[in-house]
């Protein structure tokens, strides 16, 4: 083997009996082709039964696209051996060490695709590595599915449940998270109670025990409440503070929209009433200060909403929290504000789940954070063509999968391990 061939054999991460036998470079088309072969007289293990030291029966020509060499596209060509096993009698093609079976791309190229897709839209990844969008998605589906199959959920005891929009037209996926580790456990289309059943089946498939799930944090969706009661009856439900305050925000906005018809000063003030005052800029705080001093129904609604937010900020135990919630409930019922009178009844109907927050201290904050990452990825990609693509991306950015291929800049090529 020449020095040049030895250099590229090392660059491709090949080990005996594989080596680069020849290479051609076409500067005009920007392409380099490596002809890879095995040493004469080499013997291989049977792919079917594993019997070692089987002779080569024949070979088949195969080609794989590889990572670019500098700005040039690179391809690996090899006569792949088939062995006829003396033990099982089968004739089988040997797996090459630089690519997974059935793939037309090297493992290093696929590892690059996976690494880039966690940060870039798939279309941009496809352009960067010189593949089509569909090829990139097939690669992502394979590695995400394979990595998920190896995940262990045996220690899951507390889950968060939420939905996120898949695409326009009321299409959603439901997300189940491990609230202890902050990882996405499962995602599936829909937002009905059957999604909880699908999650429980997946939990069992990954070594988890549904009876060990003793806490669940969710919004006040009837479907999720029913699904948790049916499939995880031992899980104490905590209603997420974010969603409870969100209901109060909705009530405030309903009051404002009714009152703005007779109070022009309320025009263009929607976000002043809805945002957390601690996160508002000085100009909006000043506007809110002046408006809140007027005898406006919206100002009274805002004070009710902020009192509910303060209720969650308190570091009370459950007993003290129940006293605070009782006082808020009575205030809301006497408020003469129809949206808040209805909200008070909703709070009463979900009383225990709201107070459970002061025992479990569970929150879907991490869930909401992951939802934001998923929606940001979807926005960068300008949407995904299928729900499966969205779910795969959700796992890729939020499941903390430990078995994804290492990025190509680390010396962990499958070729070197073979």
From TrEMBL:
<feature type="domain" description="Transposase IS204/IS1001/IS1096/IS1165 zinc-finger">
    <location>
        <begin position="44"/>
        <end position="88"/>
    </location>
</feature>
<dbReference type="Pfam" id="PF01610">
    <property type="entry name" value="DDE_Tnp_ISL3"/>
</dbReference>
<protein>
    <submittedName>
        <fullName>Transposase</fullName>
    </submittedName>
</protein>
<dbReference type="Pfam" id="PF13542">
    <property type="entry name" value="HTH_Tnp_ISL3"/>
</dbReference>
<dbReference type="InterPro" id="IPR047951">
    <property type="entry name" value="Transpos_ISL3"/>
</dbReference>
<feature type="domain" description="Transposase IS204/IS1001/IS1096/IS1165 helix-turn-helix">
    <location>
        <begin position="94"/>
        <end position="144"/>
    </location>
</feature>
<dbReference type="InterPro" id="IPR032877">
    <property type="entry name" value="Transposase_HTH"/>
</dbReference>
<dbReference type="InterPro" id="IPR002560">
    <property type="entry name" value="Transposase_DDE"/>
</dbReference>
<dbReference type="InterPro" id="IPR029261">
    <property type="entry name" value="Transposase_Znf"/>
</dbReference>
<dbReference type="Pfam" id="PF14690">
    <property type="entry name" value="Zn_ribbon_ISL3"/>
</dbReference>
<feature type="domain" description="Transposase IS204/IS1001/IS1096/IS1165 DDE">
    <location>
        <begin position="159"/>
        <end position="393"/>
    </location>
</feature>
């Amino acid at each position: 083997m020449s020095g040049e061939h030895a250099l590229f054999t090392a660059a491709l991460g090949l080990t005996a009996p594989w080596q680069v036998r020849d290479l051609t470079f076409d500067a005009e088309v920007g392409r380099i082709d490596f002809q890879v072969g095995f040493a004469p007289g080499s013997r291989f293990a049977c792919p079917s039964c594993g019997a070692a030291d089987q002779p080569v029966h024949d070979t088949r020509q195969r080609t794989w696209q590889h990572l670019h060499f500098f700005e040039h596209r690179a391809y690996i060509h090899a006569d792949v051996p088939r062995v006829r096993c003396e033990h099982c009698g089968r004739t089988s093609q040997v797996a090459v060490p630089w690519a997974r079976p059935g793939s037309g791309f090297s493992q290093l190229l696929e590892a690059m695709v996976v690494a880039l897709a966690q940060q870039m839209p798939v279309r941009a990844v496809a352009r960067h590595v010189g593949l089509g969008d569909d090829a990139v998605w097939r690669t992502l589906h394979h590695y995400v599915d394979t990595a998920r199959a190896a995940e262990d959920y045996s220690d899951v005891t507390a889950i968060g449940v939420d939905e996120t929009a898949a695409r326009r037209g009321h299409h959603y996926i439901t997300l189940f998270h491990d609230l202890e580790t902050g990882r996405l456990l499962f995602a599936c289309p829909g937002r009905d109670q059957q999604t909880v059943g699908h999650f429980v089946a997946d939990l069992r498939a990954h070594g988890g025990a549904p009876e060990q799930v003793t806490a669940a944090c969710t919004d006040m969706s009837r479907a999720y409440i029913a699904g948790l009661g049916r499939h995880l009856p031992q899980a104490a439900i905590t209603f997420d503070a974010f969603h409870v305050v969100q209901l109060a925000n909705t009530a405030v906005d309903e009051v404002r929209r009714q009152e703005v018809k007779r109070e022009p000063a309320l025009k263009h003030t929607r976000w002043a009433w809805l945002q957390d005052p601690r996160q508002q800029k000085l100009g909006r705080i000043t506007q809110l200060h002046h408006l809140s001093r007027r005898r406006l129904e919206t100002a009274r609604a805002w004070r009710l909403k902020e009192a509910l937010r303060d209720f969650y900020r308190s570091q009370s135990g459950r007993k003290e929290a129940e006293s605070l919630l009782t006082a808020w409930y009575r205030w809301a019922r006497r408020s003469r504000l129809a949206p808040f009178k209805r909200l008070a009844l909703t709070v009463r109907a979900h009383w225990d789940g709201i107070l459970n927050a002061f025992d479990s201290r569970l929150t879907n904050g991490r869930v909401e954070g992951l939802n934001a990452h998923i929606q940001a990825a979807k926005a960068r990609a300008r949407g995904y063509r299928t729900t499966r693509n969205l779910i795969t991306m959700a796992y890729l950015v939020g499941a903390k999968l430990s078995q994804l291929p290492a990025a190509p800049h680390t010396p962990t090529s499958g070729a070197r391990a073979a």
